[in-house]
Design goal:
The chain is α+β, with helices and mostly antiparallel strands. It has two domains: 99 residues, Double Stranded RNA Binding Domain, CATH 3.30.160; 41 residues, no CATH class. It is built from four helices and four strands, in the order βββαβααα. A four-stranded antiparallel beta sheet has the order 3-2-1-4. A hairpin with a 5-residue loop joins β2 and β3. The longest helix is centred in the first third of the chain and has 21 residues. The radius of gyration is 21 Å and the shape is elongated.
Amino acid sequence: MLSIYPAIFYKEENGGYSVIFPDLNHLATCGDTMQETMEMAIDCLAGYLFTEKLEGNKLPAPTPLEQVDPYCEDTDEEDRKTERFVNMVSVDVEAYAALHFNKAVKRTVSIPQWLNNRAIAKKVNVSKLLQQALIKELNVIQTI
């Protein structure tokens, strides 16, 4: 399912671009080119939404595009001279997380030979068991 939030884009003095998500505590990122900035915006949005869901936090509803003021109330006069535009940024958080956040990492774990032999005999998936034990030990809430 796509998550879509408005973002304010503007060019920096150094030639790069910045992007701000006003609905998400002014979450911000940047890039050297517009292409890179959009990629960073998607990554930033996905990471924020993924973390908020993992922590069980309620996400704010996105503001309709036409209601977003590209110049926030605290924008000073100099910054108001910078051309800005609002665009929607979308990401399928679950799909993005599966590719970028939930990648399995290989770990080397040492256990006694006798324990390994018993696990093999009982056809225990040691990786799965270790994941379950870590989730329980760390009190991780799985929502995604």
